[in-house]
Amino acid sequence: xxxxxxxxxxxxxxxxxxxxxxxxxxxxxxxxxxxxxxxxxxxxxxxxxxxxxxxxxxxxxxxxxxxxxxxxxxxxxxxxxxxxxxxxxxxxxxxxxxxxxxxxxxxxxxxxxxxxxxxxxxxxxxxxxxxx
Length: 132
Fold this sequence. Notes:
This protein is α+β, with helices and mostly antiparallel strands.
């Protein structure tokens, strides 16, 4: 595992410790390639592709609505949440959480996490240290 992947994995694992009822998270590139995941019970590559699709669609909606650059999207299901955050230029952070999750706390922690991860991935991509 390369250094950036390891740093991203360490960051997303920490989210589970800081926010109760977070069941997992993953980081993927905007093109759908998985970078790192801390998930159980979901297929991470498939979720990475869906996260990229959510990112693309949400970016388009935000622009069409005149609300500026996409920042985050929340999906609420019967048993919990899937929240997708823009993470820099090249990545997207997706967090899976149970219905009992404190959304304010989740957003506070995950937004800061997305900023840190975005910086890590942007630096790696900008230096030619891509993922494949």
